Amino acid sequence: MQDKIKSLENNIINNLCSELPDAFWHRKRHMISLPYEKKFTKQNIPTKARPIQMNHELMEHCKKEIGELLCNDSNSILTKDVKNLASKQIFAR
What superkingdom heads the lineage (predicted)? Predict the structure, then answer.
């Protein structure tokens, strides 16, 4: 009887558990090596970002959009403690 149990245990381990991934499961591993470039500098990295010159209208439009996105004062009960603490620290100095 012990032999049958041991045989069943080995059969389960070899046939069932080997297909399930776990911490000891050996996956395929790939090693790569990156080429070394002798003349590499940060200036040689290609980027798509280029500086643009803003005219006055575009500058005003951007300032308006930034102003709209900034947080405004709130009348919420949750923010009053933060405002009071900040004002107390300013007056304490």
Answer: Eukaryota
